[in-house]
Write a structure and sequence with these properties.
The chain has 473 residues and is mainly α. It contains 18 helices and no strands.
Length: 473
């Protein structure tokens, strides 16, 4: 198989895998009311169909990336994609809400395996100087899937019922998994990914997974319960587990987070940019959606159409950012993207019942253009900075930031808007989210002015001599 064909198949699989996960998250939101009526269950149980998935994914992303580094991203991706499709099909046939929640947990395990591997595969087959463009196309596909989800999910639910939205992702997930199995990575990439090297650091994975699961679960509870004692307890548990994880990482010989990744000067600011950008965008969209439906009395379809400029701008901005990055460098590109996102949030904070459609469209355009550019640029910075043998962990960190950010943004938005009518809640909450986006702009100034050379591939230690092995026995 030629290098060009290997890259094309890898890119197709990566795009399909990322798009399937993005589509699944958006179509489920539309289908949940129908699911609740059909299964005759409570609102709290239906909410667990989302919470169970989010908590599982957050807990496993970094460890799943480590599995890809250890056993090969191609294998882990294939298992994740096929498992995701199988779980989706199972949910479509589920007889009760307990089955749905249980299968959503399994789907979360598969999604955690799948997501970091979409980036690890790209890092394995594309030279560092060509990595920006495939990551940008992957970002565009995510934006397109997120935009299509409410429209497709609404149409399918209305015509065929809620079960049909889960069957929607079965075939694309299977195609993604099969395409990964057809790919043969370059020998150097296969050897690096599958080398025994360091261990998996199971204690570290457990501590980090517990901390992230507690954090995401707590943030998911904030919109409904506010800053309750259970929320404070969850934050305390996340803090305690996170502290224990940091102590463990300093003492273990083979930490879950390789020092080569943590020492890379690009990784921390890029993750901070992704966290603040996704928090600002998700919190803004959460409140603006309520404003459009409750204040302007738009139905869900009209609301999705009003926000369509955001998705279109994201689809265009992501590949454009790859070209801008080559010409102007990741720092200027990310700063421009975060500035656009900040301006869009500020413009949305001024929405009123009589705000012209052109103004709301401009706000959505700024939000989409900024987020598309930032997501593609910062993701490239994270993955490019990691050694090839740690690309999965880098992808897991990127996906973790993209999972924690939205939960944090929605929790902050609901807390700031609590007790206020939707028409009055926008300004104070979105001004705070704009300040968070501005903080991300400052973090973007710490990205490199131009792409640094990619991190070198670590050379595996030579195997011990046979006599030494015999002596050990």
């Amino acid at each position: 198989m030629t290098a060009a064909r290997t890259r094309r198949l890898t890119l197709v699989g990566s795009i399909l895998g990322a798009a399937v996960v993005a589509l699944d998250g958006t179509v489920l939101t539309v289908a949940q009311p129908s699911l609740r009526r059909d299964l005759d269950t409570s609102l709290a149980a239906v909410q667990w169909t989302s919470t169970a998935y989010l908590v599982t994914v957050a807990a496993l992303l970094v460890f799943a990336g480590r599995l890809g580094d250890r056993f090969g991203h191609r294998r882990v991706f294939a298992v994740g994609a096929i498992g995701f499709g199988a779980a989706s099909a199972g949910i479509g046939f589920a007889p009760g809400i307990g089955w749905v929640i249980g299968l959503r947990v399994l789907q979360g395990v598969a999604g955690a395996l799948l997501q970091p591997a979409t980036l690890g595969l790209l890092r394995a087959v594309y030279p560092a100087e060509l990595l920006a463009r495939p990551i940008a196309w992957r970002t565009s596909a995510i934006g397109l899937s997120a935009a299509a989800g409410p429209l497709v999910g609404g149409a399918l639910t209305a015509q065929l019922g809620w079960r049909s939205v889960f069957f929607l992702t079965v075939v694309p997930a299977a195609v993604a998994g099969v395409s990964a199995l057809l790919v043969r990575l370059p020998p150097s990439a296969e050897a690096t990914a599958a080398a025994p090297g360091a261990g998996l650091d199971l204690p570290g994975a457990g501590l980090l997974g517990g901390a992230l699961a507690a954090l995401v679960f707590t943030l998911a509870e904030v919109p409904e319960h506010g800053p309750s004692p259970a929320v404070w307890l969850g934050l305390a548990a996340a803090t305690a587990l996170g502290t224990a994880f940091l102590r463990h990482e300093r003492r273990t010989r083979h930490p879950l987070l390789p020092p080569a990744v943590l020492r890379a000067p690009t990784v921390a600011p890029a993750l901070g940019v992704l966290l603040t950008a996704s928090a600002a965008l998700s919190g803004t969209l959460f409140l603006v959606t309520y404003f459009l439906q409750d204040v302007l009395a738009l139905d869900p379809l009209a609301c999705a159409l009003r926000a369509l400029p955001l998705a279109l701008a994201m689809v265009v901005a992501a590949p454009a950012s790859a070209a801008l990055g080559r010409r102007h460098g990741p720092r200027r590109t990310a700063v421009a993207g975060m500035s656009s996102l900040t301006l869009g949030t500020l413009l949305a904070s001024g929405f009123r019942p009589d705000t012209p459609v052109i103004v709301t469209s401009a706000a959505f355009l700024l939000l989409g253009a900024g987020f598309g550019a930032v997501m593609a640029t910062a993701t490239t910075a994270v993955v490019r900075a990691a050694p090839l043998g740690a690309a999965g962990v880098a992808g897991g960190l990127q996906q973790t930031a993209m999972n924690i950010g939205p939960a944090l943004g929605v929790a902050a938005a609901t807390t700031l808007a609590a007790g206020r009518p939707p028409a009055e809640a926008l300004a104070p909450a979105l001004l705070t989210l704009a300040a968070a986006a501005a903080t991300g702009t400052l973090l973007a100034t710490r990205l490199p002015a131009a792409h640094r050379p990619a991190a070198p591939v670590p050379t595996p230690a030579p195997a011990p001599a046979p006599a030494f092995r015999d002596a050990e026995r």
